[in-house]
Structure formats: structure tokens, C-alpha cells
Write a structure and sequence with these properties.
Blueprint (H helix, E strand, L loop, with lengths): L16 H17 L10 E7 L9 H6 L10 E7 L16 E8 L2 E10 L2 E3 L6 H5 L4 E16 L1 H9 L6 E5 L4 E8 L4 E8 L11 H17 L6 H8 L5 E15 L3 E2 L4 E3 L5 E2 L3 E2 L6 E2 L1
Parallel strand pairs: 5-12
Antiparallel strand pairs: 1-2, 2-4, 3-4, 6-9, 6-10, 7-8, 8-9, 10-13, 10-14, 10-15, 11-12
Helix pairs in contact: 5-6
The protein binds flavin-adenine dinucleotide.
Flavin-adenine dinucleotide binds next to strand 1 and strand 14.
Length: 294
């Protein structure tokens, strides 16, 4: 994609999130080798407190650690909770001087808790931010401008047809009798696409978007793309490109909103909201887990 120096010294790149995130993780782990970053999975931030001089946490292990930490420089106390042991096998830096552990049985699952001390906490925990809720920060704006279903599918023959016909693009806006939506061409060479299809509750239900219906919708989108405005049936569209038609990978729903946190900093400026935690600017995941994987 072309470079636009006025906007950024970096060229525009189209990289789908499931490819970007492994790169970011790899980079963070590289930083971890220098002791700069530590990556953990399976842990949830469940509490955040600001400790004043003389404040003590309720965890026994924590009190033993108290003498090693300075409340004036590390006043933020973050509680991490994991159902199983936190996966810190990839970390190279230990925060043992600023942490303590405890565990309790809840139901049949063992809850592991750990408290970390830090100077600042940057809360980048997404659109449904726990930290934002814990801080009591409200969102301002429109929470639901549009509900959408996101259909991830692969169709190598469609990608090849678009490339061969000189119609390679990142976004295809579809407007026909069978489908109104946008198809993102994530990787035409590999035939990887995501169709964004608006839906309208309560007139439409999420459950109505069965795999069969979603396959028919993306086939209708391809019909428009292939013949410049004429919608085609599922079978004719499939045979036009050859192959077996679209292969569905997953279907999710999401809500387009435009909300912003009433403030970004909390607890004397020690806790900072970032990313979607601070602004649900364009989109946020409505169902964190897919409706179904295919
Ligand atoms: C369907 C869809 C399409 C989009 N398309 C685009 C696009 O084309 N271009 C674009 O720029 N943006 C797009 N976005 C928006 C983009 O995905 C987000 O803006 C971006 O991911 C926000 O990054 P983030 O790091 O703030 O939050 P997230 O990516 O949501 O990351 C938050 C992380 O915090 C973790 N977490 C949550 N709660 C806790 C907790 N209590 N403790 C510990 N960890 C926690 C989560 O597991 C997650 O790993 C799209 C979003 C959606 C839903």
C-alpha cells in the first residue's frame, strides 16, 4: 500500500488481527528476555487499589513482602486471579520482590491469587474493561450504533478470480437484494475474507445466522463481485469460480459504538486507561467467543 508521508512515516499496511497479535506477542517476549516485559496468560485483574503509607493488604504472604516495597514509589496494588496456575513460563523477569501469592478453593476450582505492586497501571483490558469498572469510570456516547455479524471464511477460487480480473481491493461494499454488507479481503492470494453483515435485533436474532445462512450470504456477496451487479444463486456462484464454494471458519457478533471514558486517569493519576478501555471508538466485541467455529 502507498506511503503517505503527511499522515505517517510508516506505510499503510493491512494486517488482520489474528496475524498481528502473534507478532506483538513475539516482540513482547523478546523484550521479556531483557527484563522489560513479562507476558502471562490465564490471569485476570480482579482488583486494583491505591495503598497509602502504612496500608496493608489482607493477604498473609503480602504482609511478609510489605517490608520490601515502598508505598510512596509503588502505591498501586493489583490483584491477579487465575483458575489454574498463572502461565508465566515465558517470562524472564521476576516480580517476586513486588508480589505475593495466596490460594483458595472456590467450588472445585482452585483460585490462585497474586498481588503485584507497581508505580503505575496502564489498563489496556479492552472495551469491557474490568479496571474501568473497578474505577467507576462511566462511558459517554452512543453504545449501539449498529449490530453486526462477522463471518470469517476462506474461498481461494474467489480470491484468485478477484486478483486475475484486476479487482484486487481491501474492502468490497455489497448492496444487492440478498446482502447489504462489507467484505474485507484480508488475503486475496490465500482467499481469506471476513464479511461484515448488519443485523437488526429484535427483528432479527443472532441464532438466525446459521452456518447455512452465512454461507448463502457470502455466496451472494461473491455473486455481486463476480458479475458486476447481478446476484446469483449459491450453486451458480460456486461453479463460476470452481472449487467447493466458501468454507466458513467462524461467526461472531459485534456492536459498533462511539463511546469515550469520562476520564482516562484514576487513583491520583496512577491508573491510566488506554485503547478500547478508554474509547469504544468504532467497534467492540459483543460476543468474546465465536457464536460457532466451523
Ligand atoms: C469485528 C471488529 C472489527 C474491527 N476492525 C478493526 C479495524 O479494521 N481496524 C482497527 O484499527 N480496529 C478494528 N477493530 C477494533 C480493534 O480490534 C480494537 O480497537 C483493538 O483491538 C483494541 O485494542 P486494546 O488492546 O485496547 O483491547 P483488546 O484488543 O480488546 O485487548 C484487551 C486484552 O485485555 C484482556 N483482558 C480483558 N479483561 C482483562 C482482565 N480483567 N484482566 C486481564 N486481562 C484482561 C483481554 O483478554 C485482551 O487480551 C475491530 C474490532 C472488532 C470487534
Amino acid at each position: 500500500m502507498p506511503r503517505q508521508d503527511l499522515v505517517s512515516p510508516e506505510p499503510v499496511a493491512h494486517l488482520s488481527q489474528h496475524r498481528l497479535l502473534p507478532l506483538l506477542l513475539q516482540h513482547a517476549r523478546q523484550l521479556g528476555k531483557g527484563g522489560v516485559a513479562e507476558v502471562r496468560f490465564g490471569c485476570n485483574v480482579t482488583d486494583v487499589k491505591l495503598l497509602r503509607d502504612g496500608t496493608r493488604s489482607g493477604t498473609a504472604g503480602w504482609q511478609q513482602q510489605q517490608q520490601h516495597t515502598d508505598t510512596s514509589t509503588h502505591p498501586v496494588c493489583v490483584t491477579l486471579t487465575a483458575s489454574s496456575t498463572c502461565d508465566d513460563s515465558n517470562s524472564s523477569s521476576s516480580s517476586s520482590s513486588n508480589s505475593s501469592n495466596s490460594s483458595s478453593m472456590q467450588g472445585k476450582k482452585q483460585q490462585q491469587q497474586q498481588q503485584l505492586r507497581c508505580a503505575y497501571l496502564v489498563a489496556a483490558d479492552g472495551a469491557n474493561s474490568t479496571v474501568r469498572s473497578l474505577m467507576g469510570v462511566q462511558l459517554e456516547g452512543e453504545s449501539a450504533l449498529q449490530h453486526l455479524v462477522s463471518v470469517h471464511f476462506t474461498w481461494p477460487e474467489l480470491g484468485a478470480a478477484l486478483l486475475n480480473s484486476g479487482r484486487a481491493a481491501m474492502l468490497y461494499f455489497i448492496f444487492n437484494a440478498n446482502l447489504v454488507g462489507v467484505v474485507v479481503g484480508h488475503d486475496l492470494a490465500a482467499g481469506e475474507f471476513v464479511a461484515q453483515v448488519p443485523f437488526f435485533p429484535p427483528l432479527q436474532r443472532l441464532e438466525d445466522f446459521t452456518p447455512e445462512r452465512c454461507a448463502a450470504l457470502v455466496t451472494a456477496a461473491a455473486g455481486l463481485t463476480s458479475d458486476g451487479g447481478t446476484t446469483t444463486s449459491s450453486s451458480s456462484s460456486s461453479s463460476r469460480f470452481g472449487g467447493s464454494g466458501p468454507q466458513l471458519r467462524s461467526v461472531r457478533s459485534w456492536v459498533m459504538g462511539a463511546e469515550i471514558a469520562e476520564r482516562y486517569d484514576c487513583l491520583d493519576g496512577r491508573v491510566l486507561l488506554a485503547g478500547d478501555a478508554a474509547h469504544r471508538r468504532a467497534a467492540y466485541a459483543h460476543t468474546p467467543a465465536p457464536i460457532y467455529h466451523v
